Amino acid sequence: MRVFVTRPEQEARRWVDGLIQRGFDAQAVPLIAILPVQNAAPLQAAWERLAGCRAAMFVSGNAVRHFFAAAPAGRPWPAATRAWATGAGTLSALLASGVPPECVDAPPADAAQFDSETLWAQAGVQVRPGDRVLIVRGGDAAGAATGRDWLADRLAAAGAIVDTVASYRRAAPVLDQRQRARVEAGADGGVWLFSSSEAIGHLGSLFPALSWDGARAVATHPRIAQAARDAGFGVVCQSRPSLDSVTAVLESFR
User: Fold this and answer.
1) What is the pLDDT along the chain (254 residues), one digit of tens a residue?
2) What one-character-per-residue DSSP string does 177-201 give?
């Protein structure tokens, strides 16, 4: 069974290796390019005010890695600031970047979903009116911060002052000839693994003439699953975003 992993390149390699070890013909087709921001000044300013924040929320492992790449030399994580993670990959990135475990809040490992709603149910009780909360996310190709505003709206409703900074940029990928051939072959068979609705959008933009009704998709969130259905995938299944859970879904396709 061919499995097409659509995560950004660095993450895709890890998933491909893990799936190959479990007996799948996994291939990387990165459908989101991760780029550094063009102007690091907002990131540096965010670091300067970090100690005055109740919390900093990171939307992904990429948000963490690029944020810490801009850290002033020798600057530790401020002990009074919480670090919020939406899932296991973000949590791992925070710990690898040196954030003390006792400073991190994340959904439990057995949570039904890993998203802002689940994180808020756990961490929202920390917020008081007047608290500052920094949201670290990705930006579009031009660097403007993008993403869902659900958490920012909840914070504002709780009386918090919300700052947002883009620590990296997301853009449509430039696929080489081998990757384009993989996409065309995968339109008629195989299984596509999606962890982002944006990746599905890029797939449609890059290959507008392809039909996906002969392909299957595994999505790691209900919103992503709906985007795959809207794109025309013939079979769409939802999975928790862990290698074990995705493997179980893939096994059901055999």
Assistant:
1) 899 999 999 889 999 999 999 999 999 999 999 999 999 999 999 999 999 999 999 999 999 999 999 999 999 999 999 999 998 889 999 999 999 999 999 998 877 777 888 899 889 999 999 999 999 999 887 666 666 688 999 999 999 999 999 999 999 999 999 999 999 999 988 899 999 999 999 999 999 999 999 999 999 999 999 999 999 999 999 998 889 999 999 999 87
2) HHHHHHHHHHTTSSEEEES-HHHHH
Task: Report domain 35-171's class.
Answer: alpha beta
Structural domain boundaries in the chain: 2-32+173-252, 35-171
The answer to whether the beta carbons of residues 19 and 1 sit under 8 Å apart is: no
Q: Does domain 2-32+173-252 have CATH number 3.30.499.10?
A: no
| CA end-to-end distance (rounded Å), the chain | 8
CA distance to 94, 101, 129, 137, per residue, from 66 (Å): 11, 19, 29, 10
What is the 8-class DSSP label of residue 32?
S
CA distances from 246 to 20, 91, 98, 119, 238 (A): 13, 19, 29, 22, 9
User: Locate tokens 């579009």: which residue?
Assistant: 140
Tell me the one-letter amino acid at 229.
R
Which segments of 85-176 does DSSP mark as H helices, in order? 88-96, 116-123, 150-157
Q: What gap in Å lies between CA 8 and CA 199, rounded to an integer?
A: 9
Separation of alpha carbons 220 and 57, rounded Å: 20
Q: Look at residues 55, 126, 112 and name the one whose alpha carbon lies nearest to residue 85.
A: 55
